[in-house]
Amino acid sequence: MKQTGTLALFPSFLAVVALAVLTASNWPVLSSLLNGRLLFGVLAALALAAFLFVLYLLRRVRQLEQEARYRERSFRTYLDAIPDLLFIKSKTGELLYVNQAASEFFVGERLAAPNLVAGTDRYRQSLCGCRETDELVFQTGEPLRRVEVFVQPDGSARYVDMLKVPVVDALTQYAALLVLGRDITDQKRAELDGLATKELLESFLQQTPDAISLIDVNGRVKRVNQASEIIFGYSEEELIDRPLPVIPPHLQEEADYYHQQVLNGKRIIGLETIRFHKSGRPLHVSLSMAPIYDVEGKVIGIAGSARDITERKRVEHRLRVSEAKYRLIAENMTDMICVYEENGAVTYMSPSHESILGYPLDQYKRVYDCLKLIHPDDRESVRQAIADIRQTREMAAVEFRFLHSGGHWVHLESRCKPIVNETGRVISFMIVTRDITEKKRAEELLRQSDMLSAVGQLAAGIAHEIRNPLTALRGFIQLMQSSAEDKRYCGIMLSELDRINLIVSELLRLAKPQAVKYQQREVGSILKNVLSLLDSQAILNNIQIHTRIAEKLPPITCEENQMKQVFINLCKNAIEAMPNGGHLRVEAEALDKGEVRIRIKDTGCGIDPERIPRLGEPFYTTKEKGTGLGLMVSRRIIEEHGGRIAITSEPEQGTTVDVILPALAG
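Predicted structure:
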């Protein structure tokens, strides 16, 4: 409102000024018309108008200054809001104005007016490099755009895209330089990283041993690497903008299918197939394919790699043939082969395990679980052997007894060898086990044979020498018996002399080789003759004899007297095992394997199972007055006839003796 009133006085002020001018120009006339008081009033009015006009001017100047400051602040605010760098430089290179973005770029903090150039020392070298372009702009008067590099104190580079524009003063002189800049460091680094990545990918593309090809959606080759020429024989010029010529005709449909799958966005990894070399030679390759996308996510092609696995396939084929050959050997050899890992898990078990030990192969899950089937007396030696192998990594051998599924012990000999990888670490163990049960039996028979040989030599040397004194002693004792007053000792001496004479007779029977004549005989008739001889002895000992002899038994080839001797010995042993009476069962039957089995079973005192293996050894007996030679002679006779004797017994449960002889074919 005040401003409006002052402006309203301006026309009156102009009228007063005009009046003053007229008065001055016609003063003589006016002075005569007006008296001095009127003149004083006019002058006073003029002074007041001049004062009011000065006040108006002062207020207007102040108003214009405020408006200018406001516009400057607004303009600065606008310039500071610009994210790009903006500063004004004089022709001498002095910074006249710097916006906030430029201030933070050069100094790292907002610059106040007094220190506009405080940060220039940090970039002085870079700014000096910019003066060449500054002078060029002043000289040409044309804007200039270029990328400037500023090195930061930490040594890193900052890239700025600068536009320099000359500023013209009122005299049309280039007084200053307006510089606009945009920090493109991230973009530049991305470009450099992209370039480095491109170079890296190009190097990988050319150095990789796999054949790499880029194919468009129409199946035409757009790029291949050097390995592709090496593997397939085609140069890049022969392949560009053409379909791949390496696909066999019979696999073209398969290739088209997988190409379509990849174009639909799927990836194919490790597809093993056949491709052709330029020479026509087939190649085994492993293919991997992936879709190529554009920036909009649209599939524009296929990136494929092919690895030549022809040699690997040849090696695999040789390995399969070798594995099949060795597996055939392993599965048909009598030795048992087992491979297990360090944790005990079984990875291979040859079929011979089942045929020798009787357990199904799926029962062998962990090798350490088999320790419980090893004879208690042998477990510690097996554990020690395993520990030695782990420590020394050398082959070791151990013998032990293993429980057969049928309940009897099998003698085994195992050799274990550690298997190491390329770093020398033990990864598994291989055990080769052999059934040495027959070997042990042969060794035992050899031992017994050596003993028999020694007994035979001893018997041949002393039998006649012993019999002569025995005959004399017996005669004199008989004389003493007829004349002595106390005859009770004579009977004891005669009994013992008869026992000595029996032993000598057995020794002579062992020592003398006897001519044997084998004839075809019926087992049933031989058994009936033997039982008729022993019937009276059985009655005296309160023993009942039960027979079950099958009809139409197949005949056997034997020496009848020796066979009778065997049956007499076995039946007498059974009778003597039942001093308090009992039952003796004698059975004969034909077996499916073309054999005849004679079973003699008693209900006597029985034998400890641990003593059964020693039965048949010379002078080893379970009877008080036995010699141990009778069973030995019986076993030898049966073995000479091609048969075998099996004895089973339990204490207080009786004894069963099975004599198995080969029968003549019907």
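Summary: Residues 1-10, 21-25, 109-120 have pLDDT under 50 and may be disordered.
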